[in-house]
Amino acid sequence: MSRQFGGVALTLMLGACSGAIVPPAPSSIPVARPPGGAGGKTTHHPVRDTAPVNIRQADGRIVAALPIAPQPVVVPTGAATAQLAGIVAGPPVAALPITDAQAVAARTAFALSCPGLMRRTDGSGLTRGTDWQGACTAARQPGDARTFFATWFEAVQVGDGKAFATGYYEPEIRGSLDQRPGYAVPVYGRPTDLVDVDLGQFSTDLKGKRVRGRVEGKSLVPYFDRTQIEQGALSGRAPIIAWAADPVEIFFLQIQGSGRLRLPDGSVLRIGYDTQNGRDYTGIGSLMRQRNLLQPGQASMQGIVAWLHANPEQGAALMRENKSFVFFRELDGPPQGAMGYAVTGQVSAAADPKFMPLGAPLFLSVDRADATGLWVAQDTGGAIKGANRIDTFWGAGAGAEATAGGMAARGTAFLLLPIGTMARLASVAPVAAPPASIAGAAGASPRP
């Protein structure tokens, strides 16, 4: 949903959003070879059964799951794309513990994403648009969904495969279409004087980089930051879509990127991310941790919100340290991901398009049963950067908020690519072999 950052649990991390895009990598791709070496034979670790997705005990405790261990490989330092990080074969898709419900939902989301998947240039360097044609055609045909994935896809591990998954959701907050007692926080649309600049039009060295600002005299200057906006800098410069009741609620809705305003008459207005002021994002949870403001058990979104409400003056100053500010637009349908398609709770996920093609399925095998399963990478996030960094979308409602707000799962990610991709890449690119110290450990099963 074009969020500033992914997963509210990430408020505990430093995560400025530069917006810079890494220049395209060389055309060759190292296909990482796991230990065991000669002849390139892949050693698969046994696939472990996990509890079904969405399982929570009645008292709200999380059900643990044992992740599949990743293959030990050496990843080149500073690898900026999957093309440079390398890939290694994962377990057979048919052996992955995918439930029927997951497969059906993921096939629907994948089919929805297919036009964009085939049209877009894959920033990861792993696939071409035509590679997806067969699977996309088959996704629209009737038949068993699990068989569909086992027939058309092969699982690969990108880089070291070590996944970290957070969560996001579609929040619902109190709002009003007009300013009235109890509703005093403006929800702004895109300012008329906000300028987007594609720096690549000025220099090839800056290709893919953009800045946002405003014109002052004859100069382009940074756009107003959060403090300036809250002090009235947007007067006459930006439309006000609605008025929120709580500054903390709208702050976190900006982080999520889209949400619902529950109006006084009970109706709902959906709003979504339009643009941002160009300022760097600062995670206030990280600041709170550094300043010892959070007690044990307060690291979730819910704990941070409770602290901000309990300390309104200090909380307002703390939120202003995040200079980034999001502008919204009205939505006439469900929230959309970065591909422009509707995202689906417990199916859609955000990933870094430099490491996973947007629209591709992926399987998460992590230490939480509710996040373990089949997802489709239909979205991006400002802090969702790097290989195997995933942000899972949980939909709307109290359950979605509870799950997403505390999601922090670790394990292994397997990207699902059209069958034959590994062989094609291996035939045109050098193979990265592990050092002897690792190669000598062939067959060893590392800790998950």
TrEMBL record:
Coiled coil feature spans: none
Gene3D superfamilies tied to this protein: Barwin-like endoglucanases, RlpA-like domain
Alphabetized PROSITE patterns for the sequence: PROKAR_LIPOPROTEIN
Region (Disordered): 28-48
Catalysed reactions listed for this entry: Exolytic cleavage of the (1->4)-beta-glycosidic linkage between N-acetylmuramic acid (MurNAc) and N-acetylglucosamine (GlcNAc) residues in peptidoglycan, from either the reducing or the non-reducing ends of the peptidoglycan chains, with concomitant formation of a 1,6-anhydrobond in the MurNAc residue
InterPro entries xref list: 3D_dom (IPR010611), MltA (IPR026044), MltA_B (IPR005300), RlpA-like_sf (IPR036908)
Keyword list, A-Z: Cell wall biogenesis/degradation, Lyase
Domain of life: Bacteria
Secretion signal, residue range per the UniProt entry: none
EC number: 4.2.2.n1
Protein's UniProt keywords contain Zinc: no
Top-rank EC class of the record's enzyme: lyase
Record flagged with keyword Lyase: yes
Domain Lytic transglycosylase MltA per the UniProt entry, residue ranges: 172-329
Pfam families referenced in this protein's UniProt entry, alphabetically: 3D, MltA
Designated name of the protein: peptidoglycan lytic exotransglycosylase
